[in-house]
Design brief:
9 helices, 38% helix, 60s Ribosomal Protein L30, Chain: A, 360 residues, 3 domains, globular, alpha+beta, four-stranded antiparallel β-sheet, Translation, Eukaryotic Peptide Chain Release Factor Subunit 1, Chain A, Nucleotidyltransferase, domain 5
């Protein structure tokens, strides 16, 4: 993906959440987009790898399995080409068989987790609120597609088949409208090859009537609802990026406000849960429609596979795992939605809160 970010798909997240084995290591670290700073990032990964190896030895894991896992991580540390292109954080999921990475457009703190399953919650934050977007700058004279990250300059992409201009020079309102609609469809077709599989929001920077015309034919499902439009011909890419970041903040804030209101409504109907033990049980039987988990709080323990009973551990270790991660796995596998948010945005103030499919 452009801007060197690689967000996981829902299927990849489900795979990470369902992978089981011993040992499994999850590592998160902040990274830099500037290649000259990559050496410092590599040293952080080396240090976190050492911490993981120490935990594995303390847990009595077979030395050959530890050695194989360490080899995968150190190969990553030593891969010069890999470190040439980074985003704002790196997620690494390693076993004795392989190491899988995702470059993320979010700023995450250094973390290492060792268990019989992967620690996925920080990754869910990157998917919930990616702080990145596509921007389609569209006018009667030109069209360009940008990708905006949480910081730094935007990247303009070369899109094969993207038309140069519309039919505004056509005579007659009806003919002009038909040609403009044809122009918009052509743009939509060209974008499909780039946006296929992406779940990033698409922001439209366009003046009327072109904005309305494109919205009427756009097939990308993550086009942001209509906002104030302007003429992108008079706006630089950097100015557009700054405006889009502010817009994303507004969109995410509105989503959280709407969720808080939904929790208020469903609480009075017996269709919300705020206790982690209750949520674990309800997630196991498929009763959870949406769960919000606190990205900053880790609750080690385990959940019974059949009953959903939650057992809490005194502290993190190779014999336990994050309870919220396991709840997220069960919600996703039952077709629910998982949102990783900051602590202030979790209704009830606990480590998780759930909207239920029916009253309990």
């Amino acid at each position: 993906m452009s801007l060197h970010a690689e967000l996981p798909t829902r299927r990849q997240i489900e795979w990470l959440l369902t992978e089981r084995g011993r040992p499994l290591v999850s590592i998160y670290l902040p990274t830099h987009r500037v290649p000259q700073q990559a050496q410092a990032d590599r040293l952080v990964l080396r240090e976190l790898t050492g911490q993981a190896v120490e935990q594995l030895h303390a847990a009595g894991v077979e030395p050959s399995a530890i050695a194989a896992l360490e080899d995968h991580l150190m190969d990553l540390v030593d891969d010069d080409r890999f470190w040439q292109f980074q985003a704002d954080s790196l997620a690494v999921f390693a076993s004795s068989a392989r190491a899988v990475t995702f470059r993320l457009p979010n700023h995450l703190v250094p973390t290492v987790e060792v268990s019989d399953r992967f620690h996925v919650k920080p990754l869910l934050r990157a998917v919930t609120f990616p702080q990145a977007a596509w921007v389609l700058a569209l006018s009667k004279h030109a069209v360009r597609l940008l990708q905006v990250g949480p910081s730094g300059p935007p990247l303009q992409l070369e899109v094969e088949g993207l038309p140069v201009r519309d039919g505004w020079d056509a005579k007659g309102d009806e003919l002009r409208e038909k040609r403009s609609r044809s122009y918009a469809r052509e743009i939509d077709r060209a974008l499909r090859g780039v946006l296929l599989g992406s779940e990033l929001p698409l922001v439209l920077a366009a003046a009327q009537p072109m904005a309305g015309t494109f919205r009427s034919v756009c097939t990308y499902p993550h086009l942001i609802d209509e906002r104030e439009h302007g003429n992108p011909d008079a706006t630089s890419d950097v100015e557009l990026a700054d405006a889009v970041r502010g817009l994303l903040d507004e969109v995410y804030a509105e989503q959280l406000t709407a969720l808080a209101e939904e929790f208020d409504r469903r609480s009075s109907q017996g269709r919300a849960a705020f206790d982690l033990s209750d949520i674990g049980r309800l997630a196991t039987v498929g009763a959870v429609d949406t769960v919000l988990v606190d990205i900053d709080r880790s609750v080690p323990g385990s959940i019974d596979e059949e009953t959903g009973a939650v057992s809490f551990a005194d502290g993190p270790g190779a014999g336990s795992y994050g309870v919220a991660d396991e709840i997220a796995r069960r919600v996703l596998l039952h077709g629910g939605r998982v949102l990783a948010v900051r602590s202030d945005d979790v209704p009830g103030g606990g480590p998780a809160a759930a909207l239920l499919r029916y009253a309990v």
